[in-house]
Amino acid sequence: MTTPATVRRTTLAASVGNTVETYDYAVYGFLATVLATVFFPAASPGTALLSSFAVFGSAFLARPAGALVFGPLADRLGRRPALVASLLLMAVASTLIGVLPTTAVVGIAAPILLVLLRFAQGLAAGGEFTTAIIYVAEFAPPHRRGALSSRVQVGSLAGFLLGAVVVLSLSTALSREQMLDWGWRVPFLLALPIGVIGLYLRSRFGETPEFLATRGRPATAPSSRQWSRVFLLIGVSVLHIVGIYMVYTYVQSYLIQLRLSPATATAVIAFALLAGVFLVAAGGRAADRLGKSRALLVASVAVLVVTYPLFAVLATAPPLWLAVLCTLLLSAGPAFYSGAAPIAYVQLVPVRMRGSVVGLTYNVAVAVLGGSAVFICQALVELTGDRRSPAYLLLAAAAVSAIAALALARSREPETAPIAELTAEAGS
Fold first, then answer.
1. Does residue 1 fall inside a structural domain?
2. Residue closest to 388 by CA, chosen among 319, 320, 308, 321
3. What CATH number has the domain bearing residue 104?
4. InterPro entries, per this entry (predicted)?
5. pTM, whole model, 2 decimals?
């Protein structure tokens, strides 16, 4: 029997591991302007920043490959082995980025090595987030699955927040020259001790009741109905992916381009992240109380209403207090949405196929949308000269996900027997 204490501990183990993953991604995003100078010193500032964002996006291209490795591993051997392996790979790759030689020392080899290590991070991330939400959801009681699954996303925002605090502290304590010389390395090196903590927590727990109850049963071949769920999962994921990476990664660089200092811009994002932690948790609870589709639809409509006016205000380079308010409001809808989305992913797919189908589907969406979101936003500004133009990407994402939320309300969850029944069958 799964006790409340076991649920709390397994939720913490899954969430902390996801914190490590997102911390590593966030640190790169927050240091984008510094890394652009370190690894692309000969380029103009705008081109160097685009190059830095392109390297950021290279990790996303690796995520489907990671899902092809870790997803089947989670379905065949168990959720826990996949979670331990993905976290170990992420921690090692991030630590190695912290000891990379710069372009000034080894020339073109430096950005090449950076791309390879970002690719390794992407492989790890391809097995991390989706396996973590599956792990938590399969331990959680039915009436709390939305709330508990959202804690994995809370762990993601905690990783963003931790990355922001670390980068902000260094930016405040060090000069620009020190940050370019050695300060940028520190956040990546911190991934090692954080990863050790996550590995310790994950190594202490076993498999989920649903996985144990269905282990050994063959996965059914995909049907037309299951393929429709795959496309529905992609539609639900669009605002989750684009919204989170836009508001918590790109907007920091956007604020710097509005003449805020890197430290101030990072502090603004840290404040939005702190509020986002509570909004994500609220989204998970809303999924349990209102239903997944209704919670997702409310958040999508809110994003459609407020996004363009908020970017229009930010584009005028407003006073700091107004920039903080706009950033907070801009992030509120995507944060709430990302709290309700995880349980929708899990419940769209049968137990024996969850690791593979949810993992690959979500990570293909991330590869297409997540890595490109920050690049597209910056490219829109460079090409049009209009600082409001990033709003169009977020508006498009919200429109797609609003339609998906309406379709989700009409869909039926896959047929699965109650856990008690499955367990009894497994033991007979």
1. no
2. 308
3. 1.20.1250.20
4. H+-coupled_symporters (IPR051084), MFS_dom (IPR020846), MFS_sugar_transport-like (IPR005828), MFS_trans_sf (IPR036259)
5. 0.82
